[in-house]
Amino acid sequence: MKCGRAWVFGDAVDTDVIIPGQYLDNYSPDFLAKHVMEGIDPTFSSRVAKGDIIVAGKYFGIGSSREQAAIALKAAGVGIILAESFARIFFRNAINLGMLPIVCPSCARMFRSGDELCVDVEQGKVSDSKDPKRSLDFQPLSPMLSKIYEAGGLVNLLRAEIHQRNR
Q: Residue 50: which CATH number?
């Protein structure tokens, strides 16, 4: 079970507001984290805390396929992204980097910014810690995607598998 404070955003949060293009000349995760979500909430990077949860509507991560969007969110401490739907490339970038994107219908309407949410990944359930009746079910990740996430990302999984083979 993972718990964190919710940050609720609407539909069509694109990669240009997640990490504006003017910052893409610097690949440092710490630098990117200082500017994450600046295009939609200029105070986000100074207020987000490790383990916080983004809750969004449809099409989270649309736009350019820039990997820096997921890198910036992870470096800022975002632990989970719940969205009604994701852009396919953003979803996969997040998984490959060891983040947890979860498709959760109606989540942006159910929860509010500041809610303390608890996500049970194995059971496929998210709930408000202060009002457990406010909860939603979601489809858990496939076994392969879970394996990548649990390894901390695709590169970590491949390193572990190579290490295992070379024993």
A: 3.20.19.10
pLDDT of 145 > 90? The answer is yes
Domain range enclosing 58: 2-140
Q: Flag whether 155 is in a domain.
A: no
pLDDT for residue 66 = 86
Residues 6+ apart with CB under 8 A from 88: none
Rounded to 10 degrees, the C-alpha dihedral 99/91/36/128 comes to -60
Domain count, the chain: 1
What's the CA gap between 128 and 79, in Å, rounded? 16
Query: What pLDDT was estimated at residue 74?
Result: 97
**Chain position carrying tokens 């997640």:** 18
Q: Is residue 121 part of a domain?
A: yes
In a domain, 14, yes or no: yes
DSSP per-residue letters across 39-83: TT-TTHHHH--TT-EEEE-SSBTBSS--THHHHHHHHHT--EEEE
Alpha-carbon distance of 60 to 68, in angstroms, equals: 14
